[in-house]
Amino acid sequence: MLPAVGRVTLAEVARRAGVSQTTASFVLAGRREEMRISAQVEARVRQAARETGYRPNVVSRSLRTGTTQTIGFLSDTVATTPFAGHLIWGALDAAREHEHLLLIGETEGDPELEKELVEAMRDRQVEGIVFASMYTRWVSVPKGLLDGPSVLLNALPTRPCPIAAVVPDELEAGRAAARVLLRSGHTSGIYVVGVGARPGQVPKGVVAAVERLAGIREVLSGAGVELAGGALLRDWQPQAGYVAALGLLKRKPEPRAFICFNDRLSVGTYQALQDTGRKVGKDVSVVSFDDEPVASWLRPQLTSLAIPHYELGRKAVEVLLSKPGPVPEGTVHRIPMPLRERESICPVEATRKHPLAGWRGPRGPLRG
Amino acid sequence: MLPAVGRVTLAEVARRAGVSQTTASFVLAGRREEMRISAQVEARVRQAARETGYRPNVVSRSLRTGTTQTIGFLSDTVATTPFAGHLIWGALDAAREHEHLLLIGETEGDPELEKELVEAMRDRQVEGIVFASMYTRWVSVPKGLLDGPSVLLNALPTRPCPIAAVVPDELEAGRAAARVLLRSGHTSGIYVVGVGARPGQVPKGVVAAVERLAGIREVLSGAGVELAGGALLRDWQPQAGYVAALGLLKRKPEPRAFICFNDRLSVGTYQALQDTGRKVGKDVSVVSFDDEPVASWLRPQLTSLAIPHYELGRKAVEVLLSKPGPVPEGTVHRIPMPLRERESICPVEATRKHPLAGWRGPRGPLRG
DNA sequence: TCCGGAAGCTAATCCGATTTAGCTCGGGAG
DNA sequence: CTCCCGAGCTAAATCGGATTAGCTTCCGGA
After folding, report:
1. What is the pLDDT of residues B121-130, one digit of tens each?
2. Partner of B201 at 20 to 30 A CA spacing, among A12, A168, A217, B153?
């Protein structure tokens, strides 16, 4: 290994090996046979490269070949949604398998910034751009995104666009949530938390809300069951869930099951149930969406439909790197949302007969 | 705007403006005066650039100038620590202020991969590399990292190294945690969860554990107070905290305060307290570290010392971009950890007199 | 009338690879 | 004794800018 005063260049390697730069280039590109270069020369070049610790300058290569082995990953917020990091993780893994790195940027939803960052990435000659949203929603495709290869991740275009999209299969997840309840015998007193019971009673622009609700309603009505009610909420945080659940608990028919539209709403719902002396998984069922870590911290552990962040990220990069040209408008790849079955569902017989059966105050040995 | 068959080059702009490429270059670089180029020519060039939608090819520029306006951000895991995303966020913001983008990679702690990714980044001529850990720990500096500018983020080098480090001020945070308890009158029955009560009784390699404990002990003993005990845990998850807290609750002196070494342990501790009929903030105090979102979801809300992820990320990039040369060994930038005071601390008088005072079963109107 | 110098541009080189288009040499065919 | 061909390499162009080193004009002063 020689001193690293600047980096060793191909010319330097060639000189050491006593060949032309051309020859060195061909050897190191593995094109020896094709270029009819002798094995001895190959050996000399390789040795020189090894001895000098030669590494090709990717910038220079990129200029000539036009390929940077770099993908842009542009998202609205890396930060605020905790496990959205898995989106990046999946993308990173897929990228690495193709020997690519990820250039990232965060737009904070600002169209000006979106445009700026798309340009900054294209200026760096990225091979393509993944435009990601941290929760599934409709987005207006930023200016300039379509000037080169790109994919929407966890997002759908507001208007038809020649761009592929990768999203979780929210519709099927909604169906699965409903099936879980039907399977354990629930036929009435089923409430949704986060959206209203009717189609259209959803927070604006949230794909997940629309599709989950549609899936739920489809399966339930297929079994002749109707949602008993719901609470449309803008802010899907624990506090809002708590208040909404308390409200729903006063309604008729008495709630037997809650379908919470994310785990944070479930946290609030759990608190409401606990405060009103009900036991989750015994008196009332809770099914949730997202499967954030908190889902398995709760007691009893929460049954939830996971957002497959990692797979979403992977898929986006794979689509990007495989795609030869512009795709037919409206190409959407849907990734299944796995059901994580845990302890928050009760068989409905128990529920029916004794709403507060099993309630003997808080559990535990030291009970006062 | 012309059709984007390939990109418009500077040569094209120059031709349109009827000047040489040199002139166009100087104008667009804002060096008109310096190069004594007339205002008319400047106007022509600028107009041509505007009309063609010219954007400089950063790859080409980089090759000539050696500056890529890109920083490498290499971390062990982007994914598993939810709010570590804020590290990236801060880095991203600081980078953007300097017109840089971030090239990211994830090493999963694999030294082979670390080396590979450091090289992949250097091959792309990054201006510097931020080597980040998602929780504060000692790391062995990966091979090749010191070949160019670099900073450790949320990590300290195991052996002395000419590299700067940016970490949260865990020692001072430990002190703050102890002060919170002293201030509200706690002088006995203080237990730590996650580490033992003695120095050295900490999970291996975790800086946070060592320094927090040192800070706690320093302030307590300054007030003539000793830790009553603790529970050294490898796995700082809710379940482990739950078990540990249940165990500590059987010890003498009876626990009046828990210092949990992260919020997940606090989640478990809350559950243990609830299961044993104690009320957090009334019977027992809990102070925590990290301030993950769950801290404010808990009831009562948890007092916690926040990890300033955003500021850490920012600082790392700023240090990287400002640093002219190799730094003196052991340069460490410590970022304060803000105390988020919430509802989990009780004034000690109440605690003293009536350990289970205020316990009337679960709160709420519907109690059975 | 000649010269120096500034004003206003441009030709040419460089960055470090990849790639096209040869060039040289030796041997067998004619 | 040429000519041709293939084996084995290399010279030179190229990618798209940044930068150095001039090269013309024109004007004023001697």
Report:
1. 999 999 999 9
2. B153
